[in-house]
Write a structure and sequence with these properties.
9 strands, 50% helix, 10 helices, alpha/beta, three-stranded parallel β-sheet, four-stranded antiparallel β-sheet, globular
C-alpha cells in the first residue's frame, strides 16, 4: 500500500513538473513570436508606425525617430513594434544605428519587443538586430555577421567585401565578387569620411538582409552623423536621412 502511494505521489509530482515546463515553453514562445509589451514603470512607451519603413514611408519613420529622441531626454524608452503592418529592413538597421548614438539616446536605456506578425518577427530576428541590443534567447555563434559598424576616418573596403561575400553565398550558394556593389560601398564610406563631424570621427553602420526565398539581397548603409535632430528642421532631416540610408 505504501509503495502504491509513493508511486502515485511521484506520478503527480512529475505530471505537475511537466505541466510547469510546458507552460514556461508556451509563454516563452508566445513572447518570442507574439510578444506582449512589458512596460517599465519609469519608461516612456513610443509606438512604432504601422508602416515601419524608412525607404517607403520616410515621413512616418522620421517622425517616429523624433518621438523616440524627445522621449529619451526625459526617461528610458520602450519601443512597441508589435502592431506594425509593413516592414523593410532599412528601418531596422537605421533604428539600430540611432539606439547606439549617444547624441540620440541621451544615455538612456531603450528597450522593445518583437512584431506580433510571425513573418515580420522572423525578419526582425534574421536581420541580426537581437545580437546588438541583447536578448534572453540563445543565438548561434555566427549570428549577426551581416552587420558592421565603424567609428573612424578610414575607408575599410574589407567590411563591404565581407558583406558581399555573405550575401552572394546566401543567394547563389557560393561567394562572389560584385564590382558595382563594392564601388558603391567605397563611395558611401568616402562621403561619410569627407563629411565627418567636428570631433574628427564619424560612425556608420552597414548591413545586408538576404531574402533567400526571392533571391534578393537588401543592403543598407547608415551614416550616423552628430546632432542631426538638434540642428535640422524636419524637411532637412528627411533629405539627410534619405541620403544616409541606401537600400539596393
Amino acid at each position: 500500500m505504501k509503495k502504491l502511494y509513493l508511486e502515485s505521489s511521484m506520478k503527480r509530482h512529475l505530471l505537475k513538473k511537466s505541466k510547469r515546463a510546458l507552460r514556461r515553453r508556451t509563454i516563452k514562445n508566445r513572447e518570442f513570436l507574439q510578444p506582449t509589451p512589458r512596460y517599465r514603470k519609469n519608461a516612456i512607451t513610443v509606438h512604432a508606425p504601422k508602416n515601419f519603413s524608412f525607404i517607403k514611408f520616410p515621413e512616418e519613420y522620421i517622425e517616429f525617430l523624433q518621438r523616440v529622441y524627445e522621449a529619451t531626454k526625459k526617461k528610458d524608452v520602450f519601443i512597441n513594434v508589435s502592431k506594425i503592418e509593413f516592414l523593410t529592413t532599412d528601418a531596422i538597421y537605421t533604428l539600430l544605428c540611432k539606439i547606439y548614438d549617444v547624441e540620440f539616446n541621451h544615455n538612456r536605456n531603450i528597450q522593445g519587443n518583437f512584431p506580433k506578425n510571425k513573418d515580420f518577427a522572423k525578419i526582425w530576428i534574421e536581420s541580426g538586430f537581437p545580437k546588438y541590443v541583447g536578448t534572453r534567447f540563445s543565438l548561434p555563434s555566427n549570428f549577426g555577421e551581416n552587420i558592421w559598424n565603424h567609428w573612424s576616418q578610414e575607408v575599410k573596403a574589407a567590411y563591404s567585401d565581407s558583406l558581399i561575400r555573405y550575401a552572394t553565398e546566401a543567394i547563389f550558394g557560393t561567394p562572389k565578387y560584385c564590382k558595382g556593389i563594392q564601388r558603391t560601398y567605397v563611395e558611401l564610406m568616402s562621403n561619410t569620411v569627407q563629411h565627418a563631424a567636428e570631433t574628427g570621427h564619424n560612425t556608420w553602420w552597414t548591413a545586408v538582409y538576404c531574402d533567400r526565398i526571392n533571391k534578393i539581397a537588401h543592403y543598407t548603409f547608415v551614416d550616423g552623423g552628430v546632432g542631426i535632430f538638434e540642428s535640422s528642421r524636419m524637411l532637412t532631416l528627411k533629405t539627410a536621412m534619405q541620403k544616409a540610408s541606401l537600400l539596393f
